[in-house]
């Protein structure tokens, strides 16, 4: 999978910011000339923070739509549809910071459950735990931000899926890894 260039990362940030401003503040979307990578189907997450506190995080772990559309949809959903938070209000926009994380396709770990920790690299891999009709995802940067080791990261991913913390040690729970390319920005920066 081709990585985005730094300039394409700036475009990703502008797309996310523009979609949120258009939806919440009814401002026109910025004119953005997209490169061909934005037409490729990619997974993406948009994370919003305010004063270093999570304010919303929504995305698409699988490549189900063109990256440009996925960024805009995830940004608006992070601002308005994350069930953990009330929707972002217009007067909050100037205090928001965000991340756009472009994902590689998730790949199941093909090893015995007890060997899973050896195949996961903190700071590189994000995780998906899937089993018993549910799933949960944590982005690669989460383990680094909290200083978790691999087993703690696995435990928290299982917990996010609504499963027991140690379910990753079971054969009937699937663990998938993926990587993410992270771009950051704020509403204070000029469009």
Automatic annotation (TrEMBL):
Gene3D superfamilies named among the record's database cross-references: Hypothetical protein ph0010, domain 1, Hypothetical protein ph0010, domain 2
Q: What is the lineage of its organism?
A: Archaea, Methanobacteriati, Methanobacteriota, Stenosarchaea group, Methanomicrobia
Classification via InterPro entries: AMMECR1 (IPR023473), AMMECR1_dom_sf (IPR036071), AMMECR1_domain (IPR002733), AMMECR1_N (IPR027485), AmmeMemoSam_A (IPR027623), Uncharacterised_MJ0810 (IPR023472)
Origin: domain of life: Archaea
Query: What single Pfam family name could you report for this chain, choosing any that match?
Result: AMMECR1
Q: What is this protein called?
A: Protein Mboo_1312
Q: Which organism is it from?
A: Methanoregula boonei (strain DSM 21154 / JCM 14090 / 6A8)
Show where the AMMECR1 domain sits.
Answer: 7-191
